[in-house]
Write a structure and sequence with these properties.
alpha+beta, about 20% strand
Amino acid sequence: MAHLKYSLIIEPTNDPDFFCFYSPELEGFTGTGESVDDCIAKARLGIREHVHLLQSEGLPVPPENPNATVTLRDTRHIVPAA
């Protein structure tokens, strides 16, 4: 289990060696990783740092999600509009 404090969405990038991730619950939180597991590991550390930054700037921090999920999206089949 990922044991994250906020939900996470992981998607492939145009580079087949990287994935991007973000939390829909934690505004401004994004990152990249070389695998799904790498994304989750980086998100665990990054979430802590992002929340600390929000707190130090006096910005609101959303409540933790006790049922946080990790969603894997495959958007490679989506063709951008011309």
